Amino acid sequence: MLKLFPSSPLLFSCFFLGTLIAISSSHWFFLWFGLELNLFSFIPILLSSSYSFEASIKYFLIQLFSSLMLISSVLSILIPSFKISNFIMMILFSLSLMTKLSIAPCHFWFPSVLSSISWTTCLLLMTWQKLIPLLIMILISPFYPLFIIFFLASVSSMVGGLGGMNQSQLRNLLAYSSISHMGWTLSIISILPMMSFMYFFCYSIILFPLIYTLLSFNFINNKQLFSLFSFNKPFYFLICISFLSLSGLPPLLGFFPKWMILMYLSKCNFFLMSFFLILGSLFTLFFYLSMIFPSMSLMKMPSISLNFKASSFLFWLFLFSLGILPVLTIF
Known about the structure:
mainly alpha
């Protein structure tokens, strides 16, 4: 849980203000300023978790080096006397954004940091903290060679799928799942940037109620998740369906943006990258099913009553995030 201090309102105000400055900026300097304001406001939020001091230092150092690479490449554009070769500038810029977005092969810091922080900061790190780097990636994607973006997207999808197969901690599991989803986000960014943003938005919608539930029950590993089956079956089923939605199982919400991305990629004849993206999603589906099926094998089918007075908000939030409510409104 987060510890609130007298300075917490100021920190959260600067945290969100930095993102708004970066999104609304029309110059590289203000974009970088919003990014750094967001970063330095997020460090005390990480420190508010009683067990995340080491993770805060690790996150700060990694983001510091990535910001140095970013500002060095930008200065080579803005200041003629600070001139470096275009090849080195492109490498520094790419490594910086890949590190901030936890895209493979610059993803190694992400699971270790995510495993040592609270669920609230996990949610912020997997969603809000990636908005500004994703915006920068969308802005520069027309100038990047397609084969580089496609290679990074395929590697991220495979690394996320394979890395999560032997994980028993839920935070590490969601960390590798986030790496896989960033591969899907990156795959369409050069062809249809708004589709990339829509995919990330759908991922955030699915993730929010899931993290909220894991925070409410204070779950850490799979065994604790299994214990929920014995005393609160409805929420256990909703958590399982939410995990399956993250893996892209139809007809849940997580399936439809992946389906649309594959349709656009097939129209552009990018069949090889589509194959690696689907293969990475199958690995992700496998480790989610391997987490769910041990308790499903013990399942009986009694009548289940849900206490709507205590949990109606979370229940309807789950329905919305899983795509059940939009389907009901259609029919």
